[in-house]
Amino acid sequence: MNYTTYFTNQSTETISADLIGRPLTYRSNNQVLGGYIVETEAYLGVKDRAAHSYGGHRSPANEGLYGPGGTIYIYAQRQYFFFDVATRQKDEPQGVLIRAIEPIWGIEQMCLNRSGKSGIALTSGPAKMMQAFGIHDKKWDLHFLSDSPFTIDLNDRHRKNAQKIATSPRIGVNQSEREWANKKLRFYVAGNPYVSRMKKRDYRSDHGWK
């Protein structure tokens, strides 16, 4: 399955859940960095009060969301950067935020990129993941996945299967927007220590994989 088909012919919620366990890699200086996706969040466009495109808001800063499914949307908050992929058709601004990966490839370089941080702290959050990749700008914003150094492997034979994909409300959504703050649009591998805010008592020795 190609990116266009995958990211446009399914609902954003379905994509967000299906991405769990798929390899996400970033090629940097002929080195592959990355791991298995363990946490995502779905953002449902103009009706979603937590989405950057709520109410049809559109600007150069969020134009990536308006691209065809498979377009990269990188946004910044203060000095931190976040990696999203647009879903659905062009001008239907929905997307998936990749919140965390379990690191597998290029771990030594990712630790260097994170100023020596290692273990669970390496990629257990969306800004941490981008720092681990060595990304500190929006250079790849608006690029299509296949025209970038990022790869999401859609081959089912290469994915890891979670014992349970848990759901919860998204992290950091304004609680005054009660309806959207409570929607279970966050998907993650239950028991995986690299999931952001996973309590230590909930860690599984098998990291939640089958």
From TrEMBL:
Q: Could you tell me the keywords of this UniProt record? A: DNA damage, DNA repair, Hydrolase
Fetch the InterPro entries from UniProt. Formyl_transferase-like_C_sf, MPG, MPG_sf
**Keyword DNA repair in annotation:** yes
Entry's EC annotation: 3.2.2.-
Q: What is this protein called?
A: Putative 3-methyladenine DNA glycosylase
Which Pfam families does the annotation name?
Pur_DNA_glyco
Q: Which organism is it from?
A: Lactobacillus panisapium
> What does the similarity note say?
Belongs to the DNA glycosylase MPG family.
The EC category is: hydrolase
Entry annotated with the keyword DNA repair = yes
